Amino acid sequence: MRHWIVGPGALGRLVALRLAGTAEVTLIARRTLPAEQTLITPAHAALVFRVGVARIDALPSTIPDAVHLTTKAHGAEAAHDALADHLPDGVPLVLWQNGFACQPRLSERHAGPVLCATTTEGAHVQDDARVTHAGHGHTFLGSLDDRHRALAAQLADVLSSAGLPAEAVDDIRRRLWRKLAVNAAINPLVARFGIRNGELRDAPFRPRVEALLAELAPILSAEGIAPPHGEGITGWRRLVWQVVEATAANRASMLQDVQAGRLTEHEAILAPLLAAAKRHGLAAPGLADHLAALRARADALAQPTGGC
């Protein structure tokens, strides 16, 4: 299979380099990256691959068998716009974004099958030619309208064979919302206060997490989204603290974006929850405060710095 990986961040390059051992891969970015890329495995081995590279404004003439959109959520639709005229109808699109913002819109807009992926794989970029696979995880694939099951199963097999364990599921919407809830309870706090995930277990942050859980539980219940274990806030509390424990040493992706001076995925993670709260007449002042603060940061980033 020929795979286009659009978005050369940590996740995009992890997917690209894992697939490069078994498939033809082209890594597509806004600028040209080195064709020789190094993957540092969780066991600290350095694996070197050569991949195809291209700019999004100079796409290859060959037609891919699948396109993996691995940009941040706020860049996904613009990236798809740049691709759309170069893809014949029917080319599958896999969306790897956090949150639940672009997925419904692109599922309607793309002229072909659309699968959504949610993953717990951990990775971070070291430089333009090196990415670290920080921790093994699991990936779920499925379409929002519960179609394309055979395609999801095929791509799950491809990913699993490449070292990224994956599974085709028929409840991807629920899984995306579950991850959205976990991200909303963790990412804004660690991003705003510059802490690693494990520090949320300690004062003064544990009560802040609990306050967010108290807001999240009724919103998710109103949307028909149950936690994987237990009921109500008890189930969500168990899930979130399990994730905090398992990722205690991690710098969440939103914190990495803040530290690198990039936009965060606050709109994709927090805005859908606040929209749902409004639909159901529920208060969510903590979530709203985080969204307002991260929007103010985004506005500040967009301002010219001046100077001579």
From TrEMBL:
GO terms for cellular component: cytoplasm. Keywords: NADP, Oxidoreductase, Pantothenate biosynthesis. It comes from the Bacteria. Pathway: Cofactor biosynthesis; (R)-pantothenate biosynthesis; (R)-pantoate from 3-methyl-2-oxobutanoate: step 2/2. Residues 171-294 form the Ketopantoate reductase C-terminal domain. Residues 5-145 form the Ketopantoate reductase N-terminal domain. GO terms for biological process: pantothenate biosynthetic process. Its EC number is 1.1.1.169. It catalyses: (R)-pantoate + NADP(+) = 2-dehydropantoate + NADPH + H(+). GO terms for molecular function: 2-dehydropantoate 2-reductase activity; NADP binding. InterPro entries: 6-PGluconate_DH-like_C_sf, 6PGD_dom2, ApbA, Ketopantoate_reductase, KPA_reductase, KPR_N, NAD(P)-bd_dom_sf. It is an enzyme of class 1 (oxidoreductase). Pfam families: ApbA, ApbA_C. Belongs to the ketopantoate reductase family. Catalyzes the NADPH-dependent reduction of ketopantoate into pantoic acid. NCBIfam families: apbA_panE. This is 2-dehydropantoate 2-reductase. The lineage of its organism: Bacteria, Pseudomonadati, Pseudomonadota, Gammaproteobacteria, Oceanospirillales.
